[in-house]
Every structure is written in structure tokens, then in C-alpha cells.
Amino acid sequence: MAPSWSVSSLGKKKVLFIMGTTGSGKSKLSINLGTQFPCEIINSDKIQVYRGLDIVTNKMAPSQQGDIPHHLLSIIDDPDYDFTANEFCKNVHDALELITEKGNIPIIVGGSNSYIEALVNDPKGEFQSKYDCCFIWLDVSLPVLYDYLDIRVDEMVDAGVVDEIRREAYDPKNSDYSRGVRRAIGVPELHYYFHILQNDSSDDVDEAYKTRVFLHAIDTMKINTHKLAKNQVTKIKRMVNELGWKMTRIDSTQVFEAVLRGEDYNHLYQEIVLKPSVEVVRRFLDY
């Protein structure tokens, strides 16, 4: 029998969602919560379901996962496979059954909001009839977030993302970036740079031009990451304002401002993000 705190008074099993844009700290918060409650994590990032490209897709390393079981992470080997919203929903339902049978709380975390909407608002209403949901929305002021995301792209470059993409995703015979893991921001943006390197002869392309192409690709990565974040905020606001989803919004802008200033942000994170989130989950679970 499932523990009483994992089932609502109406007999529904409880599910926690961590919402937010790319780079807003969703994965970190899910790990923090998973160390305080009996939880397992279900990835809802449609790019992170693919194996490989760990830097560009911002996957948490196994050493960062806190021994918390993760589901739907790096489960697809074919980089061109079209992982649809329907497949996502089926896989999530399977994972939910496994997790709740053990009496644990599923935390669904990731930025693919259209897939999350398809899961929660399925046409037959099966999900909402079976599960009681709690939504935590990690929000960050977009201008502040943009500055942070730019730094994150630079850190990805320093971590070897260019070599990773060239090694795992670049195909000189295939410039179709409309499906699979090759949709990840960074992969299409670097295609022309890799094309130049592939076809470089010492007299045709000078180093200055290659540098300009490379820097343009990195700038485009940053711009497209901004666009992604803005679109994600728009979808979340639509869920709240049009679909009527009740979310607890946690504004972590001050934390990110401290990060950008190079200050120790751990106390702010504890007070502004973690403690309120723990309290929300505690009330939700009656734990």
C-alpha cells in the first residue's frame, strides 16, 4: 500500500512538476528536493531523452544526480529519431507507475512545455483523474537570465562543446536539423563553421574569417537560447492564465544577480528558492 502522504484525499497519486526556462535551475532544485523527500525524477526535456551531446544539452552528470533515480534520460540511441509528444506521454505514464508503486513521489522536470501540456491536458482527462499535481515555477527576470545564459554558453565552449558537436552530431552530407537531438541549440548554429573546417585549404580561407564565422555561430547560439527562454516563459504564462494551472511562482532573480556579480549565492538560494520550495512540497504531501 502506498504511504498516505503520496495519495490525495480523493485517492489520486501525487506528482510534482518543476517548471521554468532553460538555465533557471530546475534540475538543481529537483535534486535538492529529491534529497529531502522520497522522490524519483522524470526528465521532460525532449532533447535530453537522446544519448550523447551531454554538454550542449546541459545534462546533469551522474555524479550530480545525488543517487536519485532518473527516468527518460539518455534513453534513445538514434540521433534522428522523432520522439513525439505521444511517446513522451506513454513513457511518463510507465515511469509514474513504477515510481508510485514503490511509494515514491515523481518529480517531472524539464523545459518542453508543449509535451508537459500534452501529458496533463490529454483529451480524455485521464491524467488529471488519476494524479494530483503540484507545480513549482522557477522564474527569473529575462534580462538577468539572458546575461546568465550568455555566460553559460561561454562555459559550454570552454568545456568542449564545439568538439562534442563536431564529433557526435556534424554530418557534412546532412544539413537537416529539424528533428532528433540535432535540433539542440548549438548544433545547427555551428554547421557552417564545421563546413569551412572540413573543406579548408590553406589558401582558400584565412584564419581571421574562420574566427569571425566561429564567433558569429556562438553569438547565434546565445540569441537562440534567449528566444527559447522567452518562448518558454510565454508558454508557462499561458498555462497559468489561459489553462488555469495553479503554480507556485518562485522568483529567483536575486540569486542570479548574485551569480552574475560573482558573489556567494548559496544563502540567497537557500532562503529564496529551496526553503519555500520545500515548504510547498511539504504542504502538498502533508509530509
Task: Characterise this structure.
By secondary structure, the protein is α/β, with parallel strands linked by helices. The protein has 10 helices and 6 strands. It has a 6-stranded parallel sheet with strand order 3-2-4-1-5-6, sandwiched between helices. The chain starts with 12 loop residues before the first strand and ends with a helix. The relative contact order is 0.17. The model has no long low-confidence stretch (mean pLDDT 94).
Jot down its keywords.
alpha/beta, 2 domains, Helix Hairpins, transferase, Rossmann fold, 6 strands, cytokinin biosynthesis, 287 residues
Secondary structural class: alpha/beta
Mean pLDDT: 94
Please count the helical segments: 10
- Distance between the amino and carboxyl termini: 17 Å
User: Uncertain runs with pLDDT below 50, 5 residues or more?
Assistant: none
Approximate helicity band: 40-55%
The total beta strand count reads: 6
By CATH, the superfamily of the largest domain comes out as P-loop containing nucleotide triphosphate hydrolases
**What count of structural domains?**
2
Q: Describe the biggest sheet?
A: 6 strands, parallel
Percentage beta strand: 5-15%
Radius of gyration: 20 Å
Characterize the overall form.
globular
Q: What series of H and E elements makes up the topology?
A: EHEEHEHHEHHHHEHH
CATH architecture of the largest domain: 3-Layer(aba) Sandwich
User: What is the fold named in CATH at topology level of the largest domain?
Assistant: Rossmann fold
